[in-house]
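User: What would this chain look like folded?
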Amino acid sequence: MVLNKDELAERILKDKLVDLTDAKHQLQPASVDLTLEKVFSFEGQGALDFDNSERVLSEVKEIPFKNDWVELARGAYKVRFVETVRLPPDVASVTFTRSSLARCGCELYTGWWDPGYAGRGESLLMVHNPAGIRLKRGAKIAQMVFLPLNASKHLYAGVHHGEHL
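Assistant: Here's the prediction, encoded as structure tokens.
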């Protein structure tokens, strides 16, 4: 069951699930728009194993905005969202590429947001368009959908908990 716009707005604003810049423009009928804070290029190789004991996240380098814009060539980038997300024990979330971004030849690869997660999330931005893309700081690039759950006893406590707070 997905929350409708009124239920979603009430939970977000009352429970502070997401710190919105402008609720009027970010609340959608069944989702919340997330906006662009930073863009990073990948600078090193990552490594993953089964139990994360040998996990190495790829090194990244921030790409500076020029006059609030960043120009990206075809390729893979890490993006950070402006909004801080705080999921209670009875809410999980998934994030999708905004259709406007997809229509420009780009997509976001995102993960699942577990109950108990708190932080400023990141995603993989793939620029498929051979001509690249220009993104303005604060551009709406993702849609976050919230999924109500029975309260979970097992909350997120992984390495990304509290990231960028």
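The chain has a mean pLDDT of 90. If you want, I can go into more detail on any region.
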